């Protein structure tokens, strides 16, 4: 697997604005936010795509998803928020490292495709 910007963020080689961190995930502000709150959550164990989770990874997948909810709660998004996973080139994934976008802080509309 090639090294990505997220690998470099985790190693401290590229600065980020940390929102949350534990032994499973690291969450930080998106540098090009599309809403008042736009945070990326990445697992500390690298997985390239959402579709790369294997059946045996069900616990790992669950822990990652659970942490996304923890981060949203830490952000105070009790009125609602959106979680987005872009998967693959046609899905809009720009970095080959799985990451969840937590977007909120305003009334969201569903984009027209």
UniProtKB/TrEMBL annotation:
Gene Ontology molecular functions: catalytic activity
Enzyme active site: 99 (tele-amp-histidine intermediate)
CDD domains xref list: PKCI_related
Domain of life: Bacteria
Domain HIT as annotated: residue spans: 5-113
InterPro entries reported in the protein's UniProt record: Histidine_triad_HIT, HIT-like, HIT-like_sf
Annotated protein name in UniProt: Histidine triad nucleotide-binding protein
């Amino acid at each position: 697997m090639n090294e990505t910007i997220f690998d470099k963020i985790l190693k401290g080689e590229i600065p980020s604005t940390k929102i949350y961190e534990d032994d499973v995930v690291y969450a930080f502000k998106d540098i090009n936010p599309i809403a008042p709150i736009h945070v990326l959550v990445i697992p500390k164990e690298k997985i390239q795509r959402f579709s790369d989770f294997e059946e045996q990874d069900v616990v790992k997948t669950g822990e990652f998803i659970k942490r996304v909810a923890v981060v949203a709660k830490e952000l105070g998004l009790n009125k609602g928020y959106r979680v987005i996973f872009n998967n693959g080139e046609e899905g809009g994934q720009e970095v080959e490292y799985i990451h969840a976008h937590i977007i909120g802080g305003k009334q969201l509309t569903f984009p027209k495709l």
